[in-house]
Amino acid sequence: MAVSDKLAIIQKHDIRLEQIKLNKAIPEIEFNLNSEDSYVHIHGVYVTAKNNSANQWSIFISNVQLTAELKYVFFDDLQERFMDERRKQFPIHLVIDPYQAQPLFQLNKIIKNEMLTVGENLEPKFYQTLKLELQNIENLDEDYTLELTIETYHIDA
Question: Global pTM?
Fold first, then answer.
């Protein structure tokens, strides 16, 4: 077996395919990023409702916003105290096609970890956490849930 084949086998063990659910009761999920090459790949999003007779999923989608946030927290190494944090936040757009009849969105969105430097210290670091969050949910009906099919690499939920 070639070295490249062994590497491919090892990497496959770190890749997981799973479904997560976000709704009014659980609006966010946070992942621990284990390396600079960690990523979350959102394959698709499906909107489900407890009450299928009133299918107003398009109104739900137009009222919420799905965001991703990468975060790095800085501590004072000598005193182990919180000092500061770096955040990078961006939206994940769920755009409704006018001819769309089902609440299914094929996103194929990859959120990769990134390198950053802090102050005068030029040693590169990578973000430690990734948070996916539903925003603007205060006035929403509790019946709706976003089910995300995701693939993760070098990540703990």
Answer: 0.82
